[in-house]
Every structure is written in structure tokens, then in C-alpha cells.
Amino acid sequence: MNSQFGLYSLWAYSSFIYMIKKISFFLFFLALGNAIAQPSYNFGDEKYRPNMGQSGKDVIWIPTGNELVTQMLKTANVGPADLVYDLGAGDGKIAIAAAKDFGARAVGIEYNADMAALGQRNAERAGVANRVKIIQGDIFKEDFSMATVVTLYLLPELNFQLRPTILKMKPGTRVVSHAFDMGDWQPDAEIDTPARGYFWVVPANVAGEWVLNSFDSQGATVLNLSQKFQYVGGNITLGKKTQPILNPKLMGDTLLFSYTDNDNNLRSVRLKFDDAKAKGEENSTYMVREFSGFRR
Fold first, then answer.
1. Interhelix angle for 93-102 vs 66-75, to 10°?
2. 100 within 8 A of 124, measured Cβ to Cβ
3. Each residue of 15-26: pLDDT tens digit?
4. pTM for this structure?
5. Dihedrals φ, ψ of 78, to 5°?
6. Domains of the chain
7. CA-to-CA distance for 89 and 98, rounded, in angstroms?
8. Phi and psi for 65 in degrees, rounded to 5?
9. Contact 203, 191 (CB under 8 A)
10. What's the pLDDT tens digit per position in 110-148?
């Protein structure tokens, strides 16, 4: 009897906590939607009218405000050459804006079939159906690896679950999120107005020991790199001299850093990575020298 009562109490408590979390998320998103001055109008069309705050698979639906949509796409430097994937596309507004205002191709992934169909009709009404597709699907199952830009408006735990997949995407892929970050993956930039947003560039995996060919005439050059997301440090060894690299900056597949040569002249290096290979150029006051490398 006591055991059954204990199990019932545990179930009741868990249910209560789940309900409180759902209510808290609803109130948060509702307040956030009001804070970004979402225009007041009737959503949807004669076939389907979603309600602000309605429940979805993992989140509730609060559309991103128009001004923030524009700011997110500008921050990601979206253009005609891009393929934008909007994860949790809702009524398609971000994908449509990417195509209509920035000339990109766009795909929205939306779990709710009625909402996805509405999004596609909205794309047709906006005159961009030839460049926008809103598909019904699960963001954790659909393949969005071809995207050059990924947009998000999800809960923190969903961002965190997606993070490993995003970090495996092509280096240089741009990611922009409304409201929520990616945990300890620090953003490359932040949006402060009209609401909070975060921007990242997917970094190449550059950690390890790199042998650089034709880099120094006095012997082999070895570059040892450590890495946490886009933050990189390390040492460069020229002949018998080892020194830390200076001011390293990794952006996508390209690493910039400086070092001092044997005559104490400051030299700058630009190194572009392609999996286990690299090509780069070294700049000094008098010359530019190209070189290649590999990870061993």
C-alpha cells in the first residue's frame, strides 16, 4: 500500500512539474512575443488558422517579429548564393523573408503538417514558391547538412541537442538563433535589438599536429593546435625554435595568426583547412609565400 502510494505521489509530482514547465515556457514566449512588438493580425488563412502559443511537438508557436527576422538574416549575411534552412519553420515567415528580401533559396522544416502546408501557401502568396519549400518533418530526422545558413527559434535544450549535428556541418556554415544560445559554444556575435539573438560560424576541426611544407627554408615547420569550438591556441616550431602563435582567430575553415621569425620580424599567416589538409600564405614586409600542410 505504501509502495503504491509512493509511486502515485511520484507520478503526481512529476506531472505537476511538467505542467509548471509548460506554463512557464508559454508565459516566457508570450512575453517575448509582446516585447518584440509582434504585429497584431489574424494568423493563417481560410484552410488553417494557428493560435499564438499553441503547443507543438517540443515547443509552442510564437512567431518571430518581422524586425528581428530581418536583423537575424542580415547578421548571417544571407544572400542569393545561400541555402537557408529554418528549423521549426512555423508559418514559413523566416524562409519567405530569406527568399523575398535577400534572394536566397530556403527550406523550412515544420513538424505540424497543417502549419507546414500553411507555410507553403504563404510562400505562394508571397511570390517565392519557386525558391521556398516548407516541408513537414522532424528537425532531428531531416537532413539539413546542405544548408549554408541555419535559423532557429527553439528551446535551450533543443539547441543543445542539435549542436553536435550543427558542428559537423561544413565549416563556415552560419547559424543564427532567436532568444536562446548553445550552452558553452560562445556566439561569434549577438543581436541586442529588437530582441535577443545569437550568431555562430561553424568552425573547422583544426586540433592536432600539422606539418607545414615550404614554410621555412631552415627546416621542417610544425604547428600544434588546441581548440575549443572557434577558440584556438598553440605553438609553432621552426627548426629548433618553438613559440606560441599570436592572436589566433578561427573563422569557419580559415585560421589567422602571427609569429616572430628568427630575425624577430612579425609575420602573419593565413591558413585554410580542408579536413586533414591545409593551404596557406605567409606575409612579411617584403614578400608573400604560399605553403601547404597536412595533419599527422
1. 60
2. no
3. 444 444 444 444
4. 0.86
5. -70, 140
6. 18-201 (3.40.50.150), 208-295 (2.40.128.20)
7. 12
8. -65, 150
9. no
10. 999 999 999 999 999 999 999 999 999 999 999 999 999
